[in-house]
Design brief:
Layout (H helix, E strand, L loop, with lengths): L13 E5 L3 E6 L4 E2 L5 E10 L2 E6 L11 E4 L6 H13 L2 E13 L4 E12 L10 E6 L3 H4 L4 H13 L21
Parallel strand pairs: 4-8
Antiparallel strand pairs: 1-2, 2-3, 4-5, 4-6, 5-9, 7-8
Bound molecules: zinc ion.
């Protein structure tokens, strides 16, 4: 966020020169520079045999399912965020966490840290924050996630990681989708 006023004291910020960043909004009272940094967020594809965990969150996408995601909280490392969010939102334990790269969502000021993980234990226990959550066959994931471009990119990476070499999973991309489960 590009700050104009100090969120602590409310004073209008001055511009202060910082070596690499150029002019940065600065509060001379609180002596804080407000850098324009994104919020770190995790997103994880959880795999159980030939299934993947998908959620429905209408406030994110109205007609499409998504992977589990959440914000990194101050005081935890990113791996802890993934385990915490998976347990909070779905009631599951995961293992073999693997980092798949990052995606920038400039309009939302988010940096998405993307992961895949294997199901370890537990039964799905949906948080009240989550509209719907369940396992889907991984071959249906791309069709179910039509609006979620970042999520689809992660699923494609997962399909490679698990050595999937069929065609059915990609039928939406090939304009061959008769999926009417929405
Ligand atoms: Zn201030």
């Amino acid at each position: 966020m590009k700050f104009k006023y100090c969120p602590i004291c409310g004073r209008e910020l001055e511009e202060k020169y910082s070596w690499d960043e150029g002019g940065v909004p600065y509060c001379p009272v609180d002596k804080i520079m407000y850098f324009d940094t994104p919020k770190p967020c995790i997103i994880v594809a959880i795999i159980k045999e030939d299934k993947i965990l998908l959620l429905k969150q209408s406030y994110i996408f109205k007609n499409s399912k998504v992977l589990l995601s959440g914000y990194v909280t101050n005081g935890e490392n990113v791996e802890e965020t993934v385990h915490r969010e998976v347990f909070e939102e779905a009631g599951l334990k995961i293992k073999n966490l693997k980092y798949l790269g990052s995606e920038c969502v400039e309009s939302k000021e988010i940096i998405m840290l993307t992961f895949m993980a294997e199901y370890d234990s537990g039964e799905i226990n949906k948080s009240s924050e989550v509209e719907w959550v369940d396992w889907h066959h991984i071959e249906d994931a791309l069709c179910e996630m039509s609006e979620d471009k970042i999520g689809r990119g992660i699923v494609k990476k997962v399909l490679k990681e698990i050595g999937y070499n069929g065609e059915k999973a990609y039928r939406c991309e090939n304009d061959d989708c008769n999926n009417e489960t929405f």
